[in-house]
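Quick one:
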Amino acid sequence: MATLYVMVGISGAGKTTWAKHQLPEAVYIGSDEIRMELFGKELTLKGYRRVHRLMNQRMRACLEQGRDVVVDSVHLSRRARRRVLRDAPPGTRTVAVWIDTGIGQAIRNDSQRKRHVPFFAIALMRPRLVVPSKEEGFQEIRRVHWHENHALGAPAPAGETS
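Output:
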């Protein structure tokens, strides 16, 4: 059975770093990369629906082939996560990976990247984040605290599981 990992967390939380180090065998599908492919830049609000529709189509195709998949976007709301889960084939194991990072640390992390999310946008994301739950349809919730994930370039611990 293929596993779908849905990354959850504010911009700059460390979602991509964690996913690429902890799940190197899974197919990685990120909204930033799809925006770059479609619009020539990662940081644009243009084409949100198109980006996520393409991300979910690719996710479903890989899961149908029996491959594990990481879907990397902020997924702050239940609604955003529901759209992803709705497109997963029946029988897919679903795991939410919540990278729990404070606003200050996310802003510091973001400052180390080539492209930057405006600090006020990161600050506005945290209050909007709804903690993922099994009631949404996940079989497992992994909560990774930033202090477990802070060493960029080094694998982070698996985090809490519920």
